[in-house]
Write a structure and sequence with these properties.
Shape: globular
CATH superfamily: Metallo-dependent phosphatases
Distance between the termini: 46 Å
Number of strands: 12
Order of helices and strands: EHEHEHHHEEHHHEEEEEEE
CATH architecture: 4-Layer Sandwich
Length: about 280
Amino acid sequence: MVRKRRPRATYAIGDVQGCYRTLRRLLRRLPFDPRRDRLWLAGDLVNRGPRSLDVLRWAREERARLGARFRVVLGNHDLHLVARSLGVRPPKRSDTLEPVLEAADGPALVRWLRRRPLLHREGRPGKERVLVHAALHPAWSTRQAEAWARAVERRLAGPRAGELLASLGDGAVAWRRKLSRERRLQAALYAFTLMRACWADGRPCRGFSGPPEDAPRGCLPWFAVPGRRSARATVVCGHWAALGLHVSRGLVALDSGCVWGRRLSAVRLEDRAVFQEGMAD
């Protein structure tokens, strides 16, 4: 009797943030078949945790081993590392990036990280999956989100990357047609890597990072804004540790606060099975 092979699976993992030992323990927990399964990471590979250098080395090796079956998108902490390497942002008190910046292979790892996308989109309309670190702006369709991701990525890959990264927090503005292209690039980068909640006009609730129930009156989670144009897609994201692991129709939010002493989470997207590992670093 010929045994049927199970369909390939996609395992999505939340914000690692330098928690390398926890990541490796979680990976051993997954029923992952390296010959056919896929691995997605929702950004923030680095910072605050103790072993960002090891995480980056592992990620680059996995990309070489798995090819397109390995996907990682850029998060705000990843961009902070790139910005520090370019000398356009100062260190923060909570940074743990010096081992990367001082390593012999650090420049090569940062170059590899800088070439990662802000968004991965696949599938046909109605069955789309979108991987992003923080959010999709409610005003965007998935096609528009992908187009703006590619535009920002081109800027990040070019000689003017430092200008955009230096203004990383300046994109908390409403998305309007009258915005200049530069302001749209800033707003798009903010949405992809920093947005958690926003007002009815789409303006991000800048500085808010608590649980949804503590948001200022009228400030909604980005995925709960009425009329959100990407609502038919399944968005896989991280970034919002105070939200925690949140799996619902159209949303797989993965940041369960590993770096804060909680858990690192993975979700198998096909059946929403959850796998978690407690902080081990």
